[in-house]
Specification:
Transmembrane segments: 45-66
Structural class: alpha/beta
Number of strands: 9
Number of domains: 3
Distance between the termini: 30 Å
Strand content: 5-15%
Protein name: ABC transporter domain-containing protein
Radius of gyration: 28 Å
CATH architecture of the largest domain: 3-Layer(aba) Sandwich
InterPro entries: AAA+_ATPase, ABC_transporter-like_ATP-bd, ABC_transporter-like_CS, ABCG_transporters, P-loop_NTPase
Number of helices: 11
Largest sheet: 5 strands, antiparallel
Domain ABC transporter: 137-367
Oligomer: single chain
Order of helices and strands: HHHHEEEEHEEHEHHHEHEH
Pfam families: ABC_tran
Length: 368
C-alpha cells in the first residue's frame, strides 16, 4: 500500500490511501462478479446439455423397450406425446435461462471508441500516468502467452512458469499531459518502444508489473486496455494499399473504423477535415505508390502524415508515435514534428513520441 501511495503521489494524484484501497476493493469485487457470472453460465450450459442428453438416451431406451414388447399402439402414442412435451418444456426452460443470463451481461454496441467513451473518466483531454512499470521477458523461444486476470488495478501478464526471465524495464514512472508534445529519448535498444507498448496496452507476452492511471484515476487493467485500444498508435512502418490514392485510403479506413451511425456524407467530411489537419489536401488525389507496386507516389514524409491521418479519423484523445522521424530527411522530420506540436497545441491531444538523436530545432519543439 505504501508503494501505491507513492505512485499516486508521483502522478500528482490527490487521493488518500484509504480511498485508493477502497477503489482497489471495488475493482476486485467487480472482477470477481464478472468471473462468477462466467462460471455460472458455463455451469448452467453444461448442466443443461448433460441433462438433455441423459433424458434423450432414456427416452430412446424406453422407446426401444416398448417397441420390442409390442405395446398397444394407443399406449405407445401417449408415451410419445408425453416425451415430446417434456423435451419441449426443457428446451423452453433452457432458452429462458440463457436469455436471462445474457441480459445480465453488459451490452456492447458500436465501435470500441463508443465503448471507451462510456468507460473513460472523461471523453475530452486525457492525462496518462504510470508508476513503477517493470517488464520481464523469458529467455526462451518456446514462449506461450498465458494472460492472468487480477482483481486490482495492479497490471500483470504472466507467462509459462519455471522459464528464466530477463528484466527489460525497471520501475519506469512518468506522466503524459494533454496539449503537450512529449518526447521519449534514448539510444537503440533502451526500451523506448517497450514503454510505448506498455502504456498503450499492446504488450501480450512476458510479465509486467506497475500502475497505469487515466486522468489520475485508478482503473482496472481491462478498462484501461479498452480505452487505449481506441486511441491513436502510429508504428514505425507505413502500411498502405499502394495503388490507392490518399483520399481513397482514408475513405477505406473510415468505412472500417467509424461507426455505422455516421452517414456517408459525415465520413467524407471527416476525411476532408483530417486531410487539411495533416496538410495533405493538395495530395489527396495522388497515388500512394511504393516498391511493391513500382509506382512513384508520395514521399516518405507524406506517407508518415498519411499514417497519422489514419489514426486521427476516430478523433482520439491520445496519439502515440513510435519513431515517426525514422527514415526521413532533416526537412521532412522538422515539418512532421511541427505538425505534431500543432496537434497538441490546437487540438489538445496528448501526443507522445519516441525519437532518436533529434537535432536542436526539432528538440526545441517538444514540450516535455
Amino acid at each position: 500500500m505504501d508503494q501505491l501511495t507513492n505512485a499516486l503521489a508521483f502522478a500528482n494524484c490527490s487521493i488518500t490511501t484509504t480511498k485508493a484501497h477502497e477503489l482497489i476493493l471495488d475493482v476486485g469485487a467487480q472482477r470477481r462478479k464478472e468471473l462468477e457470472l462466467v462460471d455460472t453460465q458455463y455451469s448452467n450450459a453444461l448442466l443443461g446439455v448433460s441433462f438433455v442428453t441423459v433424458f434423450g438416451i432414456c427416452l430412446c431406451s424406453l422407446y426401444a423397450f416398448y417397441r420390442s414388447h409390442m405395446f398397444h399402439l394407443h399406449v405407445r402414442a401417449e408415451i410419445a406425446h408425453l416425451g415430446t412435451f417434456i423435451l419441449v418444456q426443457l428446451f423452453v426452460h433452457h432458452c429462458w435461462v440463457a436469455t436471462t443470463e445474457t441480459k445480465a451481461l453488459p451490452a456492447f454496441h458500436g465501435t470500441l471508441m463508443d465503448h471507451a467513451m462510456d468507460k473513460s473518466p472523461t471523453a475530452g483531454p486525457c492525462t496518462i500516468s504510470f508508476a513503477y512499470l517493470s517488464y520481464f521477458v523469458q529467455e526462451t523461444s518456446l514462449y506461450v502467452a498465458r494472460p492472468v486476470l487480477l482483481y486490482t488495478s495492479f497490471c500483470k501478464c504472466g507467462g509459462r512458469k519455471g522459464a528464466p526471465e530477463k528484466q527489460i524495464m525497471h520501475d519506469a514512472s512518468g506522466t503524459f499531459k494533454p496539449g503537450r508534445l512529449t518526447a521519449i529519448m534514448g539510444p537503440s535498444g533502451s526500451g523506448k518502444t517497450t514503454l510505448l507498448n506498455l502504456v498503450s496496452g499492446r504488450v501480450f507476452t512476458g510479465s509486467y508489473y506497475g500502475y497505469r492511471l487515466l486522468n489520475h484515476e485508478l482503473t482496472s487493467p481491462t478498462d484501461y486496455d479498452v480505452f487505449m485500444s481506441s486511441q491513436g498508435y502510429v508504428e514505425q512502418t507505413d502500411t498502405f494499399i499502394e495503388t490507392m490514392t490518399v483520399r481513397e485510403s482514408l475513405l477505406f479506413s473510415a468505412y472500417l473504423r467509424l461507426p455505422d451511425s455516421m452517414t456517408l456524407r459525415e465520413k467524407i467530411e471527416r476525411v476532408q477535415t483530417i486531410l487539411r489537419v495533416v496538410q495533405l489536401d493538395d495530395a489527396a488525389n495522388t497515388i500512394i505508390g511504393g516498391l511493391l507496386s513500382g509506382l512513384k507516389g508520395l514521399s516518405g514524409g507524406q506517407k508518415r502524415r498519411l499514417s497519422i491521418a489514419t489514426e486521427l479519423l476516430r478523433l482520439p484523445s491520445v496519439l502515440i508515435l513510435d519513431e515517426p522521424t525514422s527514415g526521413l530527411d532533416s526537412t521532412s522530420s522538422l515539418l512532421l514534428v511541427q505538425m505534431l506540436a500543432s496537434l497538441a497545441n490546437q487540438q489538445g491531444l496528448t501526443v507522445v513520441s519516441t525519437i532518436h538523436q533529434p537535432r536542436a530545432e526539432i528538440f526545441d519543439l517538444f514540450h516535455d
